[in-house]
Design a protein that fits this description.
One of its GO terms (molecular function) is O-acetyltransferase activity. It is a multi-pass membrane protein. With 349 residues, the protein is mostly helical. The protein has one domain. The chain is 70% helix and 1% strand. Strands 1-2 form a two-stranded antiparallel ribbon. Helix 1 packs antiparallel against helix 2, helix 1 packs parallel to helix 13 and helix 3 crosses helix 11. The chain starts with a strand and ends in a 15-residue tail after the last helix.
Amino acid sequence: MKTSTRFFYIDCIRAVAIIGMVITHVLALHLDSPGMSILWNYLHFVVVGLVFCSAYVFAASRPKDEVIPRRLWVTWFGKRVFRLYLPFILYVLVHYSLWYALPTLFWGYGLHKSVSYVISTLLLTGGVDIGWLTLLFIQLAILSPFLLTVSRNRKIMPLVFITYTAITLIMSFYRIPIQDSRMIGWLPWSYIAFLGYVYADTQKHDARLANLYVRGALVVGVLLFIILRITISALGQSLMFSVHKYPPDLYYLSYGIILTSLMLLVISNRAFTFSPVTRFITFLSKRAYAIFFIHIIVLDFVWTTMHLVWWEEIIVIGTLSVLATYVWDRLQKKLSLRQTYDPRLGDTD
């Protein structure tokens, strides 16, 4: 199902992913409860969904046989990095400013009063934890033209896919230090990007075959997940997804593939005709990146000033984050701050 130039089932997955991310960050403050800890753990599929959706849209909006001039690629990359990095910088500036100016309303969630911390944050080499996601999407933006070309080469793609599977499998048992995950995280995450590219290209030409691919990915994902879970447990290693996420290994990725495949199978076979719902889902998808940053500031405020139970926090933080994003979106439109892309390159909203 496609609405105008958008893919609604992709919008649904991205909307679910950003909602899941908000819930995950709220639950992270309640891990002393076993039930909250379990729910928090099993919500860690959301980044897989975000990376898959971004890759899908990138591939779906670029024809296979069209040659893109290098100059346009450079222009696209510059705008893409700007759209990824600027919101992060604005978030850091606003959050720090609110923390310093209104310490009774904000306790500085995820922040530290250290020059070196701020510098590493701005350089994306450390600092604020959520900066890893901005760095990841910048890394994938650099690699996306090359990765897409590889995914469309039938001769080398199988070998590349096997290699990625082997690398992420090894990483499941031999963990890379978390401090190094930012620099090499793009490697295993490219695995998900490849799946998004292949699915998008197949979907354009043969929807039934694409559906079979998703079913196949679901079956393989379940088998890998079960085998790896049993093996990792037998070795006495942690089964918590957060342990296997930085950088992601095959155990973590297989779980994300299972959930993403299930959502694709459910959503792509359903028709959505209730206009307010479709508009809301599309808004969540298009503004997922803004919601990602805004909800951290809202979480800081709510946690500092209100005394709510976890489910009330989810509702309040989610609602305020969406409302704040809507206001910011309207302000951007009035100030004409939006950038445009060359249609030959596609957008990744």
